[in-house]
Amino acid sequence: MHLGSEADLHRRFRTGRPCLDLVHTGGDGGMAQFEIAHTPDDLGRLLGRILGLPPLEADDADLVAARRLRGAITRIAYDVAGGSLPPVPVDARRPGDEDLVNAAAAAPPLVPALLPDGGRAVVAPTVTAALSTLARDAIDLFAGPLVARIRVCAAENCGLLLVDTTRAGARRWCSMEVCGNRAKVRAHRAGA
Ligand SMILES: [Zn+2]
């Protein structure tokens, strides 16, 4: 699957939580090989995709800020998903990661607007506002009951995060279509 292709984005951005979708745009260390936010334009396009907006205008400072926030959310997410480890090394949670999230959340978030036709729009979206919205989503997730349902996909070589919102709490794969089926086929071939 070509990095950044439509199929790739579809696979990355399906956690149901925009803050975790941001994690899936790449990162440092072992995550660098999955990077798709290389330029400010990439960032603007990806943030729009994650948040259901047209591409946002972004500059170099936005890219630095987005990567800083992404790093903190990444480290916290894989830390709380403890027990299910990603196939590549992810940096350990650091003191101050919460401060990075809180600082981004302190900026005004995206402002929704109701349109006369019943539709919805966002008023003058900026990257700073988008990062605030993502940081607030992270705070809701990490400080809420679903924190215990954050996991790393059980498929080998996947490493994507998921939030198990099923009643039984037995979800193991980021997607049934990709990783779930692959695991089933492998188990079938192994005679399991
Ligand atoms: Zn997976």
Automatic annotation (TrEMBL):
Residue stretches making up the Zinc finger CGNR domain: 149-190
Domain of life: Bacteria
Entries under Pfam families matching the protein: ABATE, zf-CGNR
Protein name, as recorded: Zinc finger CGNR domain-containing protein
Source species of the chain: Actinotalea fermentans
